[in-house]
């Protein structure tokens, strides 16, 4: 089998990422050399490849579904919003510019060429490439500059399937409307639909599917049932709204973790490994009152450290965290969260705010630099090997009175101790490393410390493997595709492209933009 396919969606968070991962896993299990691709990704959840390139976290998981190590070609353009109007543009894994929406237009032609070239390289190396769209292909105000949806499909001649989330309602209208808003050339590439997150009696759904087929002249390639426990690495905080609530473990004590949901929260996928640990309940919170019953408070990564620190103060969370730490309540800061725990932050780069007072819970000082640090560090904590990855502009210096810089051993006069690349003071920990909690032995040892500091009778269950759990979830996605999707139809699409002579709907029936 040779070819490619674009998985688009009616909306953001319709299920494009998981459907793409499922198709990748299904193909890989058939012995097909398959790779994932997303031309342009807007996400604050990112990952660092083995050669130091930054890409979307979802594409790293899709690469795992293929049995591959992720590369920059799999996500050549990554947009990281720092505010409502400005984003950092990461091209082939390296920061290239910081622009607003209008300035981004000047980069469009260059970025389109970068994306097409990356896809061509993947197609030359692998039998099949499964591409994921971004948002919706029916964002008609953005179509002229699109490089992730129909613009890519036109440039590369890709057949397209459209995924819709039936759980949120209106799936038939959104599928029909998505197709009808496209022009003739774009409609000709849309081969059909996949319904996602269905729960209920299939016989009640069938009349709607029959009508959708009749109205659009397109196939419904599958209906994927709702499946609990498939929480995967997601792209943005929209998905947090639909995250299933956790319940305490039956017959044993639980450890309650409150994660501060910062306005520009990034790499909150760090919490997935905690949530996978039996008996650990993870909640994302936005108010001081929600910290009251927490055994551990986590301040996660942020794309806008100083702005989110200001929000932390205005929301009353900064005071609540400081009071909690004064009582010995455990607090963990990761990357931007670690920076917020420092005494001072000097930021002439990201926010331009100059010197800003931090929360002062760790004897550390932060200075932002223009160059972003990307790496895959390895270290040790609690006698365990720890591997992680780092993505940050802020450089943290720990004040070790009477001693050398962080990592040279010893603790300062105030009792601070090294912790990974950061430090610990009492029950407050800080590190710039993402992914550290995915290391099973380290995670359990850390939770033992947290439980002791919180005065909780909680002991992590031995044997939980986060890597094995992720593989099981990917296998479950592959099973969904194999059992509930017309895989023969998908195979024909990948090999031959969209069928000829598909009917046109709405305004598209009389218009055509031509190729992108």
UniProtKB/TrEMBL annotation:
Residue ranges of domain CobB/CobQ-like glutamine amidotransferase in the record: 256-441
Record GO biological process: cobalamin biosynthetic process
Cross-referenced InterPro entries: Class_I_gatase-like, CobQ/CobB/MinD/ParA_Nub-bd_dom, CobQ_GATase1, CobQ_N, CobQ_synth, GATase_3, P-loop_NTPase
GO molecular function: ABC-type vitamin B12 transporter activity; catalytic activity
Keyword Transcription tagged: no
Pathway(s) annotated for this protein in UniProt: Cofactor biosynthesis; adenosylcobalamin biosynthesis
Entry annotation: catalytic residues: 335 (nucleophile), 434
rRNA-binding as UniProt keyword: no
Domain (CobQ/CobB/MinD/ParA nucleotide binding) ranges: 6-230
Pfam hit, one: GATase_3
Superkingdom to which the source organism belongs: Bacteria
Record keywords, A-Z: Cobalamin biosynthesis, Glutamine amidotransferase
HAMAP family on file: CobQ
Protein family membership: Belongs to the CobB/CobQ family. CobQ subfamily.
Free-text function comment from the UniProt entry: Catalyzes amidations at positions B, D, E, and G on adenosylcobyrinic A,C-diamide. NH(2) groups are provided by glutamine, and one molecule of ATP is hydrogenolyzed for each amidation.
Protein name (Swiss-Prot/TrEMBL): Cobyric acid synthase
Origin species: Nonomuraea cavernae
